[in-house]
Amino acid sequence: MAFSRDEDAASGVDSRRDAHGSFDTIFLSAMRLSAHLGYAGGFKESADRVAQWERAGLDLVWVAEAYGFDAVSVMGYLAARTETVGIGSGILPLYSRSPALIAQSAAGVDALSGGRCVLGLGASGPQVVEGWHGVPYDRPLTRTREVIEICRAVWRRERLVYDGAAYSLPLPAGQGTGLGRSLKLITSPVRFRIPIYVASLGERNVALTAELADGWLPVLFVPEQAAAVWGKALAEGRARRPAEMGPLEVCAGAMVAVGAERDVASIRELARPLVALYVGGMGARGANYYNDLVRRYGYEREAKEIQDLYLAGEKDRAAARVPAGLLESMSICGPEGYVRDRIAAYRDAGVTVLDVTPVGADPARLIGQLKQWVT
């Protein structure tokens, strides 16, 4: 396997289930299945779709935020409309809320859902953080570590006393009135350890994720390239990982369509504008992790051309420059045998949660098929 699994996974199950029978149990002998809700669409329509997918076998749904509706509101609504599916934030930007509010929000969704919340965190980028939230985009690695530590202290109902590089609780007198008190969460959470997944791509951030997080959320994931790109960083993080945390979960996947090549080729092409957006338009020149990633995949010339065209406003031409081979490597579109082989490739790359975008006449039925194939 590209990513080694910890020895304590040999039994097939990491039994971190608490007295509430919550979502913590991680089935390592079989992949789980997740899907993302997009930024658009009404709450009711989205909830109807998730409830249908839940009945088909979906294990976890991720709720996006960016600068659309806030994810927590949607997560709370989904908690009331579903029964078993895990409900994850995909993702909450670190800079958009105080660490204590992030912890409160996750604990609230966890209570509403009966222990089904998954807290997805990420640094986002300066375009959104400074342009939308109006706060400086500074020290993303430090903030990631400190937010995780503070959230876990909140859920343990400890009185918050934290002296970090980015956050100090209570706020020192020199930074405020000096009247702040050390407080703890008033209500008892359903779980004292809500799973935290971190979206990361850079080597230091991936190493931090492997050290501290319950799960990892990479994007533009090519399973055959994963070990070469991230293997060293994951190994460094895992070497510092507390044994009691258990193995790191890896949630990655792609658009899925099942059918003959003549039928799915056009579906695969649907990802072309999105890949161009990430590779060409996310971040600034010289500060785009997605562009750097595609270069590491071996598409250095194409990545530069896509970025040059996108930043010049020629989005269609940028999309046209996305290599067909890259699109295929980041999709799961083809006949049943091909799809099964691609699922196996993700499993061999260490993926424990296959994140899918089902495309077809009956997405719920496709979710059901995939559920059978990943277990």
Structure description:
- The chain has 375 residues and is α/β, with parallel strands linked by helices.
- The protein has two domains: 7-258 and 334-374, TIM Barrel (Alpha-Beta Barrel); 272-329, no CATH class.
- Helix content is 43%, strand content 15%.
- The protein is built from 15 helices and 14 strands.
- The protein has helices at 43-56, 71-81, 99-113, 126-131, 140-155, 203-212, 226-239, 261-269, 272-281, 289-296, 300-311, 315-320, 324-329, 336-348, 363-374; strands at residues 13-14, 26-27, 32-37, 60-63, 86-89, 92-93, 117-122, 162-163, 168-169, 196-199, 215-216, 249-258, 331-334, 353-358.
- The strands form three sheets. The protein has an eight-stranded parallel beta barrel, surrounded by seven helices.
- Helix 1 (43-56) links the parallel strand 3 (32-37) and strand 4 (60-63).
- Helix 1 crosses helix 2 and helix 9 (272-281) packs across helix 11 (300-311).
- It is globular, with a radius of gyration of 20 Å.
